[in-house]
Design goal:
This protein is mainly beta. The protein has a single domain, classed as Porin (Beta Barrel), CATH 2.40.160.20. Helix content is 15%, strand content 52%. It is built from four helices and 13 strands. It is elongated, with a radius of gyration of 23 Å. The N terminus is likely disordered.
């Protein structure tokens, strides 16, 4: 099925989408960081002067515990990194282009401190479910009209089991920054094929991704909020060979995504 002219005009390339995601991440951090660092408004009067308000340290014994449970919600932009078959391009003159598509995920968090109190290393296991849609656009070479573009979608519900190593800085009042990296085994729970013509391209049911990112821990009186920006790169070729024009024109497909996580822990 061909894509519409309006959708073609509003197409966002990968670099643009990454810039928009990073900008949204920074916009989110500014008000939350300011709120986490807000000072108490009470003042105590003394004979020789005034004692100014001081910052209240929320969850002061947070780092004394070795385990911290939690949950997360994730918003991501995901796409396939494709490699076309050179022979098929020469013979058929078909160009393939992968586009970013939004996805939503939810899951649980289990943080285990490695070492004694105050250790900067945290082992994180955060299983979850993600609802993915990834699109590849095919069009004949030399045909610039949007009506000539045929879009293939791979819609799937996946279960993720990321195992990450977190390195966090020293806490400064009610915030600190951290870096995180690790691997993420992924299993496909179901494939959603609502349109036989649009869902001919297929991907294998398992994947392994390399992930890394940065985040900010914000301590509140009852919980810790942590916005996190993470990048993911697939390590496997997911292409399922089939006897159709779409899979035959490709040599390999792998995953790539940019994800904003909202982590909540106590």
């Amino acid at each position: 099925m061909a894509t519409t002219h309006i959708r073609y005009q509003l197409h966002l390339h990968g670099a643009q989408l990454k810039r928009f995601t990073l900008f949204g991440f920074l916009v989110l951090l500014v008000p939350t960081a300011a709120l986490a660092q807000r000072k108490a408004s009470s003042r105590a009067n003394r004979k020789n002067g005034t004692v100014r308000s001081i910052t209240v340290k929320n969850l002061s014994n947070y780092d004394d515990r070795w385990f911290h449970p939690g949950m997360y919600v994730s918003l991501s932009a995901s796409r396939f990194v494709i490699e076309q078959s050179p022979t098929y391009i020469q013979n058929q003159n078909i160009i393939a282009n992968s586009t970013y598509s939004p996805s939503l995920g939810v899951g649980f968090i289990g943080d285990v401190r490695l070492g004694g109190p105050g250790s900067p290393f945290i082992l994180r296991f955060s299983p979850g479910v993600n609802f993915l849609t990834r699109r590849v656009e095919f069009k004949p070479r030399g045909y610039p009209k949007p009506d000539s573009i045929v879009t293939q979608e791979v819609n799937s519900t996946v279960v993720q089991f990321p195992l990450m190593l977190k390195y966090q800085s020293d806490r400064r009042r009610n915030s600190r920054v951290y870096m995180i990296a690790g691997i993420n085994p992924i299993l496909t729970a179901s494939n959603r094929r609502s349109d036989p013509l649009r869902n001919q391209l297929q991907a294998v049911s398992s994947d392994l991704t390399l992930e890394y990112g940065v985040g900010l821990d914000l301590f509140y009186p009852l919980f810790k909020l942590a916005p996190e920006l993470r990048f993911s790169h697939g390590l496997r070729n997911l292409l399922v060979p089939r006897n159709d024009v779409f899979s035959q024109s490709l040599q390999s497909i792998s995953t790539n995504s940019v994800t904003l996580y909202i982590n909540i822990q106590n």
